[in-house]
Specification:
The complex is a heterodimer of chains A (304) and B (342). Helices cover 39% and strands 24% of the residues of chain A. With 304 residues, chain A is α/β, with parallel strands linked by helices. The longest helix of chain A has 18 residues. With 342 residues, chain B is of the alpha/beta class. Chain B contains twelve helices and twelve strands. In chain B, strand 7, helix 7 and strand 8 form a beta-alpha-beta unit. The chains are: A alpha/beta (304), B alpha/beta (342). Chain A: It is a peripheral membrane protein. Chain A: It is found in: Cell inner membrane. Chain A: This is ABC transporter ATP-binding protein.
Chain lengths: 304, 342
């Protein structure tokens, strides 16, 4: 057997049980998802889906903060859910999260460099100020900031873009090999959005970090992704190389998503039309029971 | 002009604070002149903290201290009678509110009372302005809900029982049920998923066409503007820097900020590197002297640091506030701000 992949997701499902004893309801948030990330080739791996598609649940399982109901997630060959104590800490250092809203990720009453310092203390076992500041500054340099700019500042003293970049720098301190970014640009302005996604590209190219980019924005996904999976109601409906899929999606649901992207052709005509979701949903419902089949050019499409 | 429904002249609205003797003035809306025609969707685009929300607060006549109108006028013309909401009394504004001038708000969950059924919101907002008998009123409401593809049953539902898209459609129905001539929409689709967003936008357009109303549509998302607005104003640090028919903004913008916004849009099928703008929007409490964009502008000259450019009229209903508007902006200069490129 060849070297085990960096992250191996094997038939992972997650079922949430809601309600009391009498009105118990089971919700399948994630249904038999499988994919693998290679250790040799860092990439930007994108998970696309609407709210309720299970993309955040999948991300939480990758981070180890949710245990799958069935299936297993292996990080460097070892089950994520089975890691405890020092092993788990080592895993957390290697797989780091970035959250959606930078203004909510930081406590407004704490200086932002304290977050960086506590990360350095925890994962690098840094004890003195000098030991902490080296890695902190290095991480901030990677995102185009420096410790001098950030030190002693409160979150409200930084702009949204600087805060989101500080959040990314915090994730970089422990030198992770995977960063899980859950909708990192949906709360930032258009002009900052490109700064963040360009930064992801640079982290992949220069630091060799694999980024799991979770989004519902197909345009930025097209711009930065190497591979994508498209999820609908917990099922993967199409997965494979990003650009061919987004240029010519084959599954009806992927086609619906592509159609719903607001285009710039004929800007100002005011000729917006509805997405036609009603027609698609019925046909997709039948397809959900289907299987993922290879469809040439390296992609998998769910067919009935 | 005769068919202008809204005329804003030299509007200045500041937040004026005086805490413990320390005076602070935030110039959120600084010298804005614009008009909105009947039966058009007028877009306002700008980053957060560019003052766009403050501006629509003035348009909606929802001004509370410390926010004050310092100068200028905001005149609506409903049925031929002008009313200046910047100076009108509360009772005069109450007469036009909701019947002629309504507002689609951003967070549908905070508009609808979570512990009351949807119909009570319609009763609270629309019953009095519409002035109909009870049965005729509910008939009108149901007919209007059908326009937004909502079943009459949603009236019996609690807000949490509806999906995000349905809730947003309910708030749109609420804002348009009185058939107002003027609707202000503040980021009505920002919180929605792509598919739902497209449906809601299409419905806003359908309702606008059916009623013949004017809409001021505010969002930072340029792709939304491209698809729904007829004319578009770009706001930067409390001022309009460019205004033109939407098509012109996307094809022949003159202001460097607008050009950057358009150039940085990612599109499916386009793999070229996209620039990102460095720096941050200026603080409105201490805006830079001269053109407020000059610290981030790739083509700023000495004059930009000293003088404030005025919004100049050009052919084709195009207005630009830039000394360098005629400068041919080479792609290399657009990209000069780009540092974080792969």
């Amino acid at each position: 057997m060849s070297a085990s992949p960096l992250l191996d997701v094997r038939d992972v499902s997650k079922v949430f049980t809601m309600g009391g004893v009498l009105s118990r309801k089971q919700i399948k948030a994630v249904n038999e998802v499988s994919f693998a990330l290679s250790a040799k080739k860092p990439e930007i791996f994108t998970i696309i889906g609407e709210s309720g598609s299970g993309k955040t649940t999948l991300a939480r399982m990758i981070l180890g903060s949710e245990v799958p109901t069935s299936g297993e997630l292996l990080f460097e060959g070892k089950d994520i859910a089975a890691r405890r104590g020092a092993e788990r800490l080592a895993f957390m250092a290697r797989v780091q999260p970035i959250f959606q809203n930078p203004f909510e990720a930081f406590n407004p009453l704490k200086r932002v460099d304290r977050y960086l310092a506590s990360t350095a203390r925890r994962f690098l076992n840094a004890r003195t100020e000098a030991e902490m500041e080296g890695p902190m500054d290095e991480a901030l340099q990677h995102v185009g900031l420096s410790l001098r700019e950030v030190k002693g500042r409160f979150p409200h003293e930084l702009s949204g873009g600087q805060l989101q970049r500080t959040a990314i720098a915090r994730a970089l301190i422990s030198k992770p090999s995977v960063i899980v970014a859950d909708e990192p640009v949906s709360m930032v302005d258009a002009s900052l959005r490109m700064a963040i996604v360009n930064l992801f590209k640079r982290l992949r190219n220069e630091l060799g970090v694999t980024i799991i980019y979770i989004t519902h924005d197909l345009a930025t996904a097209y711009y930065i992704s190497d591979r994508i999976i498209i999820m609908q109601k917990g099922h993967v409906v199409e997965m494979g190389p990003a650009r061919p899929i987004l240029e010519a999606p084959q599954h009806p649901y992927s086609q619906l998503l592509k159609r719903s992207v607001l285009s710039f052709d004929g800007a100002g005509g005011g000729r917006i039309t509805r997405s036609g979701r009603e027609e698609v949903d019925t046909s997709a419902e039948a397809l959900i029971k289907g299987r993922l089949k290879p469809a040439g050019d390296g992609r998998l499409v769910r067919v009935g | 002009m005769a068919n202008d429904i809204l005329t804003v002249e030299g509007l200045k609205a500041y937040y004026q604070m005086n805490y413990f003797g320390v005076e602070r003035e935030v110039r959120a809306v600084d010298d804005v002149t614009m008009r909105v025609k009947a039966n058009e969707i007028y877009g306002i685009a700008g980053e957060s903290s560019s003052g766009k929300t403050s501006f629509i607060k003035v348009l909606a006549a929802a001004i509370r201290p410390p926010f004050r109108i310092v100068d200028g006028s905001v005149t609506y013309r409903f049925n031929g009678t002008p009313i200046d909401v910047a100076h009108a009394g509360e009772d005069e504004i109450a007469k036009i509110r909701w019947k002629h001038l309504s507002y689609i708000m951003q967070g549908s969950m905070s508009v609808l009372n979570p512990v009351r059924r949807v119909h009570s919101a319609f009763k609270d907002f629309a019953f009095r302005p519409m002035g109909l008998k009870r049965e005729a009123f509910w008939e009108a409401v149901e007919a209007h809900l059908a326009r937004l593809h909502l079943e009459p049953g949603v009236l019996r539902a609690y807000p949490h029982e509806l999906s995000g898209g349905m809730r947003q459609r309910v708030t749109i129905a609420l804002a348009t049920v009185c058939q107002p001539e003027f609707i202000i929409a503040d980021e009505p689709t920002t919180a929605l998923d792509v598919v739902v967003q497209k449906d809601v936008l299409a419905m806003i357009r359908e309702v606008q066409q059916a009623l013949g109303s004017s809409v001021v549509f505010v969002t930072h998302d340029m792709s939304v503007h491209a698809n729904i607005t007829d004319r578009l104003a770009i706001v930067y640090a409390g001022r309009i820097v460019e205004e033109a028919p939407t098509r012109t903004i996307f094809t022949a913008a003159r202001h460097p900020y607008t050009r950057h916004l358009v150039a940085s849009l990612p599109r499916i099928g386009d793999t070229s590197p996209k620039p990102s703008l460095e720096g941050r929007p200026p603080s409105l409490a201490e805006p830079p002297a001269g053109c407020r964009f000059h610290p981030r502008c790739p083509i700023a000259i000495e004059r930009c640091r000293k003088e404030v450019p005025v919004l100049e009229e050009r052919p084709g209903g195009h207005r630009v506030a830039c000394f360098r508007a005629d400068e041919a902006l080479s792609p290399a200069k657009v990209l000069h701000v780009e540092e974080s490129l792969s």
